[in-house]
Design goal:
four-stranded antiparallel sheet, OB fold (Dihydrolipoamide Acetyltransferase, E2P), 10 strands, 0% helix, 124 residues, mainly beta
């Protein structure tokens, strides 16, 4: 391939050959799609820390933003019922009832930031 190159105002015509790479990348460095491992199920939520008043409160297992209240004050609930949905790092986490009972108070509102260990629901 012939090219024209100008250096210090003088134009030169040069011939260039494409050389093969003397050090090609080893196959180990070639980009390959990585295998994806999909977990069998969602991991269980971490256990809430012990609370004052025994089982009279539900604490948030993670920090996040309240995106949905699934329960209401006065509602009778069973263990595992979804109380609140939090969003953390673009993932939603359900906060579930640890015990059966009646909801005395919901301490958060949609849009609130909650911290890990913060009381979010009180039971009668």
């Amino acid at each position: 391939m012939k090219l024209k190159v100008t250096v210090d105002g003088k134009t030169y015509e040069v011939e260039v050959e494409a050389a093969e790479d003397p050090h090609p990348a080893p196959a180990a460095y070639m980009t390959q799609p990585a295998p994806v491992r999909v977990p069998a199920g969602a991991p269980p939520a971490p256990a809430a820390p012990p609370a004052e008043g025994g089982d009279k409160v539900c604490r948030s297992p993670i920090s996040g933003i309240v995106v949905k209240l699934s329960a209401q004050t006065g509602q009778q609930i069973q263990p595992g019922d979804i109380l609140i949905v939090l969003e953390a790092m673009k993932m939603e986490t359900n906060i579930t009832a640890p015990v059966a009972g009646r909801i005395a108070a919901i301490k958060v509102n949609v849009g609130d930031n909650v911290q890990s260990g913060q009381v979010v629901v009180e039971f009668e």
